[in-house]
TrEMBL record:
This is Response regulatory domain-containing protein. Keywords: DNA-binding, Phosphoprotein, Transcription, Transcription regulation, Two-component regulatory system. It comes from the Bacteria. SMART domains: REC (SM00448). Residues 6-127 form the Response regulatory domain. GO terms for biological process: regulation of DNA-templated transcription. GO terms for molecular function: phosphorelay response regulator activity; transcription cis-regulatory region binding. One of its GO terms (cellular component) is cytosol. The modification 4-aspartylphosphate is found at residue 58. The keyword Nucleotidyltransferase does not apply. InterPro entries: CheY-like_superfamily, Sig_transdc_resp-reg_receiver, Sig_transdc_resp-reg_VieB, TPR-like_helical_dom_sf, WalR-like.
Amino acid sequence: MVMEKKYLLIDDSSTAISIMRSMLNAAGISNNSIDSTMDSLKAIRLLAAHTYDIVICDYNMRHHIDGGLIFDEVKQRRLLPSDGVFMCVTGDNTQQVVTHLIELEPDDYLIKPFSAIVFVNRIEMVLTRKSALYPLLLAVDNKDYQTATDLCKRYRADHPLYTGYIDRINGDCLLRSERHLEAKVFYENACKHTDHLWPRIGFGQALKGLGELKRAETVFRDILAKYPKQPLARKHLAGCLIASERVPEALEQFHLLHKVNSANPLRELIIANLYAVLQQHKKAAIGYLHFIKKVTGTSRYSFGVYSNISVSLMLASIYTDDNAEYTELLNEARHNIYEQNIHGDTEQERYESEISSLVGVAILACLHGEIQDSFIIVSKINLQEKPIDDYYTVLNIARLYGFCGIPEQYEKTMQIARGLCGKSDDDVLIQSQVKLLEACHVEINQRLKEGGELVEKAFEKRNSNNAIGALEDAYRAFHMVPFHYHLCFLILELTALATPSFSKAANIKGVISSCNWVCCNDTRPKKEEIERANELYKLALERVNKLL
């Protein structure tokens, strides 16, 4: 079988490529059937442009895109046929690499150095297995889990040599199709017939899917008591803790896992999401940055996550009482926004890149009270006419609506973000995204609620002839719900009567300018209200200019 296939060798060592090529040549495979590269990005381009049957990839590439990410790209974009082979080779057999390979689950892996006989035999073994089970593997790749489980029953009898491999696929399909009760019975039975860990981990996942979180947690902790560096058990334990609303404990588990293996970029993303859930936004920004650095150049790259670095820094600035730190965080956020380039291979990608960048600019402008700039950007976004598939971009658009105090658009966009949560291929990542969505919702709703209450207080004080108190509450409310045109009119009215003593003249000028702009550009005010707003703005501006 090995002689009829097309090969791609990926290794950052020309010597290693020459050795593997010689081994394949000795097995009767011509150089015409073998492509090779020492460059990770070129490897991805070759895989996208050509059809290969077998990929032999070094794990430790001298590039931020390692063998694990190349394999992830192959899976994400289906760059190999269902019966194609991806084999990792590595000269590093440390715990970090081994645990990552356990998480990745390539078709096979070899530790360097290896003999030609072992090398070719291992390729032949995997090829034979995948060829025999091709219809099953194709069904799994197409996410046709019902067909896959039906084929598992048939192939289990026809191919007893691959029983364990088929059983693992069967259990995974039951979990992916959320047939958790069947999965529980299946894994419970499998545990009786093998000492391998996979049925016990699957059993815990099934319990978690059924909502039996205490039992699931016990299963994973029992595994970790004996195998403390088992990555899948710890990952799913963290998932149980997230589901149990114990986010700090889940975060601790991910940090323990990260110490064993820091190569997995999805873990960086999950950790960042959980920090954001806990409103530790500065740490979240660092996590998002680490993720982006690792996945740049792959399909895992997200314009929204890049923008989230800046958004997290801005959120961190809201929660600090230290003026120096506030300035530092905003400057860093501003720098990150300006560094974000508009790019992408397709028109849709370039559009998403542009919107993601603009949303960051708009949130920054909104937090500074520069409402005109925010509103201009908001008016360019129409997710109904031109949808965006990036969860983080959509979430940031919802945040923008929330910061601007536009509740109707905010609610609609949060619904779209909620629908995008389930598109990930990692269940624990989905959990972290759901938690991030919920935390964002609580944060924004609190902001809208507090802003609305301040608006009411401002009007009450104004009606009670407490102009100074009304002015203070109105200005505070403006930074929470700036698109509230009744509030903007009140600020113009009050500032025309008295200059706020609690703010600098330049800041006051910016607020009243924004308030006048809202009153003139909002569709709700009547013509006479707009005219009155313009008159009040002129009076307020004269008063403020005297202070400059």
